[in-house]
Structures are given as structure tokens and as C-alpha cells.
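Thread amino acids onto this structure.
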């Protein structure tokens, strides 16, 4: 696996472990970035082109994400070189061997990422007893089925809405990417009176300023179809979702969907980032200049990781959802207050908040980062 330039600073990484087993064809890396706040949680990514450098960057992102979510967990990440669509029996053998080799690294708790899912976490849990987002049969909380991240987005909307004088009752909402995150965000916001006026998936955009039929859209997606198949719909192009006038715009699909080239088309007051890095830095800055409030990804979409940490702590679903609401509300408030107080972008405020929490925890540790 290529080494690249591994980033390092006063926050980490604390450990980089390479695991190689030639006979098995196993080549993996674990990066534990910083565990001042507690054992790290971070996903295991399976991809053909992963590098140590990528793993280290992702581990740092988890340090900030977990600290921003105010979890008693540090950041780590692991990567395994291979085709994510390899036969399940081969994947199971590789994952079990990788986990076994790391069985004593108690500062790292495995989670799912690209190329791994709850079944994979079940194998790892069986092997070493240290994984989150497990199958329900093993005590896992099915976070995508219950909508942990969408639930957190609703709380972010309530707090951010109050800060900018936006009532959720009647607020026009648009969701880009009507999947696990997007559907539940729309559903939880509708419970607060918001009206879904636009939704898209990888095939089509549907829009209706009088309000789309949410139940019909959800039923179509749950039947494994696309929004283009909604009966009597007049589907528009995928990209048209950016032009739908609304109060709350929720990206919940892919990275970098809003850039300097299309940001001026957005007509909204609040952007709640359900997806990871959906806007480029340039686009976020231009939105701020236009007075649009942006709640950055690792603050707004932390519902999933909070749910996973609560599962690991043995909490019930009810307690996990209470924690999501409480933490996300507190964090959105803190980020907006810091952003206003210091005249910085919400993302800059969020990074400062997270880094300060990590440094504060490091003061209580003899060796700081671990
Ligand atoms: P998902 O696969 O369930 O849904 C993604 C949806 O986006 C699908 O409906 C797909 O058709 C649609 N889509 C794909 N390309 C599109 C495009 N170009 N335009 C419009 N729609 C498009 O995935 P998900 O779990 O809902 O995750 C969505 C995003 O949120 C990802 O970026 C993920 O990393 C991020 N995220 C998810 C969670 C979680 O709890 N699932 C937590 C944090 C962040």
C-alpha cells in the first residue's frame, strides 16, 4: 500500500499499524489519530486504491467529528485494499483476519464505511467484540431504518431556524438525494409542519410548490423504484433540484454538488448538510456572503455516529435518539454563536470548537494524544 505523505501535527496520529498477510492477500492499515477523549470510533473502508495518507486524513476527520458530536470517543479509521464487491466469503475471511490482527488495539472500535456494512460489523464483533452499527440480532440499532441522521437534521433545523427567524411550520424544504438520510429528514421535518417542495434522486427531480405527496414518494422509493416512477409525476432533470426556491435546502447525496459554478442558483435561507462535504469551500463562503446560513456536515449529520456510540455503550433506541437531539441542538447553538461572535464561517467555528474540545481533553492525559 502506498505510504504518501502522512500528515502529522500536535493532534496526531497516535499510531499507524500496517497489517499484511501475503498468503491471504491481506493488506490493510489502521490509523488511530487521537484518543484523548476516549477510544476511537471510525469506519473500515474497503477499496482497491486506498492509501495510508487517505486513511490518516479520514482518521483526523473522525477525531473532529466525534469531538464535535461531543462523544467520549477519539478518531480512527481503517482501510483494506480490495474490491468492495468481492465474494462475501472472501470478504469475511479478510475482515476476520484483519480484525484478529488488531484484536489488542482496544483504542479502536470498527464501524462501517464504503465497502462495509452491518453484516461486516457482525463478523468483526464475533471475532473481537469491538464494532458498532451491528445487525439488530446482535443488539445493533438499525440507524438507517430508524432515520438517526434525518432525526438529527430536524433538530438542527429547529435550532438554526430559531436563530434566523425561520418557522418550521410551513417552511418549504428541498431534499437532494431521497435516500436513507433524505427521506427521514423530510419525514421528521414534515412532523414539524415543513412542506416538501422539491426532491431528487439519481434519476429525476420532482417539484411542487404546493407540496409533494411525501407518503407517495417514500412508497415509490421503498418499492425499489426511482422518483421518476412516481405515478402522475412530471420528473425534471436531476440537476433541477438546485433551482427550486425554498427555505431549507438539504443536500443528502454526494460530495461537491454545490460549487462556485452553481451556488448562485440556490434560492434558500438555510442549508443543512446531510451529505458529507456537499459544498466546496468557495461555495460555502459565497452562501455566507449572501446571508444563507449553512450548518456544516459534521455538525448537522452526526446523528448516525451518535447513534452508533450509544449502541456501543449499550443504550436503548429511545436513549440513543434522546442523545442525538440533545447533542445536535447544543452543537448547532454553539457553532452559530461562535460563528457570529467571531465573524467566521460556521464550518470554521465548528472546526475550532472540535479542536478546542480535543485539546481540552489532551490536558488531562499524560501523553496528550493517547
Ligand atoms: P443512500 O444511498 O441511502 O441515498 C443516497 C440517495 O442519493 C439515493 O436516493 C440516490 O439515488 C441519490 N443520488 C445519488 N446521486 C445523486 C445525484 N447526483 N443527485 C441527486 N440524488 C442522487 O445514502 P445515505 O445513507 O442516505 O447517505 C447520503 C449521504 O449522506 C452520503 O454522502 C453519506 O456519506 C452521508 N451520510 C450518511 C449518514 C447515514 O446515517 N446514512 C450519516 C452521515 C452522512
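Threaded sequence (370 positions):
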Amino acid at each position: 500500500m502506498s505510504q504518501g505523505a502522512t500528515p502529522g501535527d500536535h493532534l496526531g496520529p497516535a499510531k499507524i499499524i500496517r497489517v499484511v498477510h501475503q498468503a491471504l492477500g491481506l493488506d490493510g492499515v489502521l490509523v488511530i489519530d487521537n484518543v484523548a477523549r476516549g477510544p476511537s470510533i471510525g469506519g473500515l473502508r474497503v477499496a482497491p486504491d486506498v492509501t495510508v495518507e487517505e486513511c490518516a486524513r479520514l482518521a483526523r476527520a473522525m477525531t473532529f467529528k466525534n469531538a464535535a458530536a461531543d462523544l467520549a470517543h477519539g478518531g480512527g479509521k481503517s482501510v483494506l485494499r480490495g474490491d468492495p464487491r468481492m465474494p462475501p466469503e472472501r470478504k469475511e475471511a479478510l475482515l476476520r483476519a484483519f480484525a484478529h490482527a488488531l484484536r489488542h488495539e482496544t483504542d479502536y472500535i470498527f464501524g462501517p464505511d464504503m465497502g462495509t456494512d452491518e453484516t461486516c460489523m457482525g463478523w468483526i464483533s464475533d471475532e473481537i467484540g469491538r464494532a458498532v452499527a451491528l445487525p439488530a440480532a446482535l443488539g445493533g440499532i438499525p440507524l438507517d431504518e430508524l432515520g438517526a441522521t434525518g432525526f438529527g437534521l430536524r433538530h438542527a433545523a429547529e435550532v438554526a431556524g430559531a436563530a434566523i427567524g425561520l418557522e418550521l411550520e410551513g417552511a418549504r424544504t428541498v431534499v437532494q438525494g431521497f435516500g436513507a438520510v433524505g427521506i427521514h429528514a423530510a419525514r421528521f421535518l414534515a412532523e414539524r409542519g415543513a412542506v416538501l417542495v422539491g426532491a431528487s434522486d439519481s434519476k429525476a427531480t420532482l417539484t411542487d410548490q404546493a407540496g409533494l405527496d411525501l407518503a407517495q414518494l417514500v412508497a415509490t422509493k421503498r418499492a425499489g423504484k426511482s422518483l421518476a416512477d412516481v405515478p402522475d409525476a412530471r420528473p425534471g432533470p436531476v440537476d433541477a433540484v438546485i433551482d427550486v426556491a425554498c427555505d431549507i435546502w438539504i443536500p443528502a447525496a454526494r460530495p461537491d454538488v454545490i460549487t462556485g459554478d452553481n451556488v448562485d442558483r440556490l434560492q434558500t435561507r438555510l442549508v443543512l448538510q446531510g451529505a458529507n462535504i456537499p459544498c466546496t469551500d468557495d461555495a460555502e463562503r459565497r452562501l455566507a456572503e449572501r446571508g444563507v446560513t449553512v450548518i456544516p456536515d459534521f455538525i448537522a449529520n452526526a446523528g448516525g455516529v451518535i447513534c452508533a456510540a450509544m449502541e456501543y455503550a449499550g443504550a436503548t433506541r429511545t436513549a440513543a435518539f434522546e442523545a442525538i437531539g440533545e447533542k445536535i441542538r447544543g452543537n448547532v447553538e454553539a457553532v452559530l454563536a461562535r460563528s457570529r461572535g467571531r465573524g467566521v464561517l460556521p464550518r470554521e467555528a465548528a472546526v475550532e470548537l472540535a479542536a478546542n474540545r480535543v485539546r481540552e481533553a489532551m490536558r488531562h492525559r499524560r501523553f496528550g494524544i493517547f
